[in-house]
Specification:
Structural class of chain A: mainly beta
Largest sheet of chain B: 6 strands, mixed
Largest interface: A-B, 31 and 24 residues
Helix content of chain B: under 10%
Shape of chain A: globular
Distance between the termini of chain A: 37 Å
Number of helices of chain B: 0
Number of helices of chain A: 0
Largest sheet of chain A: 7 strands, mixed
Structural class of chain B: mainly beta
Oligomer: heterodimer
Number of strands of chain A: 11
Radius of gyration of chain B: 13 Å
Helix content of chain A: under 10%
Shape of chain B: globular
Radius of gyration of chain A: 13 Å
Chain lengths: 116, 113
């Protein structure tokens, strides 16, 4: 069964450093998302991406964050200058096979980001 | 903006029992989708069941079923014949199509042997 994959599974970085989290969505999906979950809290939406541009973003997704689909398969989240409060689990999700209503999102296993 | 409320932070039942997790939501939209996701200790988010708001029939997936009350904005999850592997966090989520999902705070379900 096709699945969303994410790398790395765990990333440790120092405050102020840039990090790039990578995701490979399900191949025939058209909508891509990033979410984050601070330990012990609920999952929060960051950004959605469709047709090579951001379609929606939350208040959390400020100028420190950016997303990109550099090729036909990868979808990346960049945090420009990490802060301690960026420590969280980051989930990538994808939905919407071509021709279908984009309503069922499948999540990757997550990348645990630790900022020290 | 939508809100999703899960009022049970933790529940515990014996194996083979039936358990119901509650979820309420608030929205002004008429067309939307509701989901239950399971998050085991591995922290993977697994889609359990989905309900389209325009469908009156409650969704079922094997041992999992929902009670969707659109007027009351209620969307509860029933797990029948609960198993040890059902132990996990369960998140209720609201989606308006291609938009990002809005999640509740979750219910930690513990299945006791």
């Amino acid at each position: 069964e096709p699945e969303v994959t994410q790398t790395p599974s765990h990333q440790v970085t120092q405050m102020g450093q840039e990090v790039i989290l990578r995701c490979v969505p399900i191949s025939n999906h058209l909508y891509f998302y990033w979410y984050r979950q601070i330990l012990g809290q609920k999952v929060e939406f960051l950004v959605s991406f469709y047709n090579n541009e951001i379609s929606e973003k939350s208040e959390i997704f400020d100028d420190q964050f950016s997303v990109e689909r550099p090729d036909g398969s990868n979808f990346t989240l960049k945090i420009r200058s990490t802060k301690l409060e960026d420590s969280a689990m980051y989930f990538c999700a994808s939905s919407g096979p071509q021709g279908a209503v984009p309503h069922e999102q499948y999540f990757g296993p997550g990348t645990r980001l630790t900022v020290t | 903006a939508q809100t999703v409320t899960q009022s049970q932070p933790e529940m515990s039942v014996q194996e083979a029992e039936t358990v119901t997790l509650s979820c309420t939501y608030d929205t002004s939209e008429s067309n939307y989708y509701l989901f239950w996701y399971k998050q085991p200790p591995s922290r993977q988010m697994i889609l359990v069941i989905r309900q389209e708001a325009y469908k009156q029939q409650n969704a079922t997936e094997n041992r999992f079923s929902v009670n969707f009350q659109k007027a009351a904005k209620s969307f509860s999850l029933k797990i029948s014949d609960s198993q040890l592997g059902d132990t996990a966090m369960y998140f209720c989520a609201f989606g308006g199509g291609a938009d990002g999902l809005t999640f509740g705070k979750g219910t930690h379900l513990i299945i006791q042997p």
